[in-house]
Write a structure and sequence with these properties.
Layout (H helix, E strand, L loop, with lengths): L2 H12 L3 E2 H12 L5 H13 L3 E5 L2 E4 L36
Antiparallel strand pairs: 1-3, 2-3
Helix pairs in contact: 1-2, 2-3
Length: 99
Amino acid sequence: MRAVDIAYEVLKAHGQALDVQELLDLTLERMGLDREPRKAAQIYTEINLDPRFHYRGGNLWELRDWQPRAQAVGRGPAGRERAVEPEAAEEIDEDESWT
């Protein structure tokens, strides 16, 4: 199993955001490896590039799946934007066709 997949499993099992250093330590521990700067840097780079992870700020990383999904308000089929006045937004019927 790849190190980044193990980091994903560590976060998933923990159930909440982890400080990057703790995430790296737990990942390396699961891999049966001692902390080496080069290996830790490699895992950190993979986490940064993997879309499954989300940086929350303050050195905290979490899973992107834990983020609320953005709603496509004011968009029609194929993501085309539709201008909607804020006061008129409530009047739009969900069944209204988007053109």
